[in-house]
Amino acid sequence: MTAPTLLRLAQLDEALAAYDGFILDLWGVLIDGYETFPGARAWLERRAAEGKPVWFLSNASRDAAGMVEELGKLGVPRELFAGITTSGQLAIDAFLQDAKFREGGIYLSGPGTGQAGWPAEIRERFVEEIDQAAIILGVGSFPEDELETRFAPLATALDKPFLCANPDRNVVSGGLPFYAAGKLADRFAALGGEVTWYGKPDPYAFRCAAEELATRGAGRLLFVGDSLVTDVPGAVAAEIDCLWLAATGIHREALGLGFNQEPTREGLEPLLRQHPERPRFAAAGLA
Known about the structure:
This protein is α/β, with parallel strands linked by helices. The chain folds into 2 domains: about 5-60 and about 200-285, Rossmann fold (3-Layer(aba) Sandwich), CATH 3.40.50; about 105-195, HAD superfamily/HAD-like (Rossmann fold), CATH 3.40.50.1000. It has 11 helices and 15 strands. The chain has helices spanning about 10-15, 40-50, 65-75, 85-95, 120-125, 145-155, 180-190, 205-215, 230-235, 250-255, 265-270; strands at about 5, 20-25, 55-60, 85, 105-110, 125, 135-140, 140, 160-165, 170-175, 175-180, 195, 220-225, 240-245, 280-285. A 7-stranded parallel sheet has the order 1-15-14-13-2-3-4, sandwiched between helices. It has a 5-stranded parallel sheet with strand order 6-5-7-9-12, with helices on one face. Helix 6 packs across helix 7.
């Protein structure tokens, strides 16, 4: 396998000059859910000054408008990015457009706090008990010690379709580890349940972002993400160059790196060997 080109933080802007548009993950790249990473806003401002559009692609189960609002609270103003695609918005579109998902109760496998902005016609179908549901909806993240409690009702409903609106298995928020809906979906599928995934690593999600950037004149695209499980495989499948950030996201602890600490090729290789898809570039962080 070809090793990724390791870029030092001081080299990033020079390497990025070859691209005219960018697709960025959020958690582990720009934010940790509670604050924006140092230098992230300045990075976006430089791309805006260059006239190079940025589109966010997130596995968050919020609707797109709700995520834009949340970013504003974190100090990422709307004028610094062209738009956003979220797993939640892709799932919303499926509920509204796919006839087989238009009726019946919906049971939330996660906390559901991010669904306040979902359309009322979907929210009014949410039910408290899984036996009242026709569909299971995987959303959000939760403390790791809640895994068994949250999965128990799902194990009794393997005949119901599971729509996963957050394919992440693990997330880091505020510096703390959490499980996400993808963890539940994996176990559900392992027992024979049917899961439909919305978001990364499905190349469709990447194509949605790429098509939006194409309408803004951007054809040479770079995706930036932190996950070797969802981000890198999705970008590779969509045939989009990928910059993997090793020291600001979910793999930082496994790599033994401090926040934004410059990695070495030797330090990255053992983890990279565990994943078949390789990014084109690797770096500590975005800025």
